Amino acid sequence: VQLQAFGGGLVQAGESLSLSCAAPLRTFSSYAMGWFRQAPGKEREFVATVGRGSRNIKYADSVEGRFTISRDNAKTTVYLQMNNLKPEDTGVYYCARSKLNTVPLKVYNYDLWGQGTQVTVSS
Fold this sequence. Notes:
Layout: E1 4-6, E2 9-12, E3 17-22, E4 33-38, E5 45-50, E6 57-59, E7 67-72, E8 77-82, E9 91-98, E10 110-113, E11 117-122
Parallel strand pairs: 2-11
Antiparallel strand pairs: 1-3, 3-8, 4-5, 4-9, 5-6, 7-8, 9-10, 9-11
């Protein structure tokens, strides 16, 4: 089973992008889903996570107020709306399935990963 992330691209600072991640899993609604990103030469870092029923949501401090994570369990898809993008948001964005029923922030709590989509924000 593969998660497929879409929507990356090259934008200027202040612009927006919308990412989506198709997760064709019969048990999609049973797990929290998250977005992570990795800049060149840096470790993969947490961006946002959404619980099974969308009531529990957490964001990294660096994206709070600018990014919005959401999910559609019927479509087995998770989304990341990114507004007011900054050059430091540049990186490969990955969606992932949590191993837990909670909304974890650590990479090691996610066991299924997509291939990533590149987001580049120019200044």
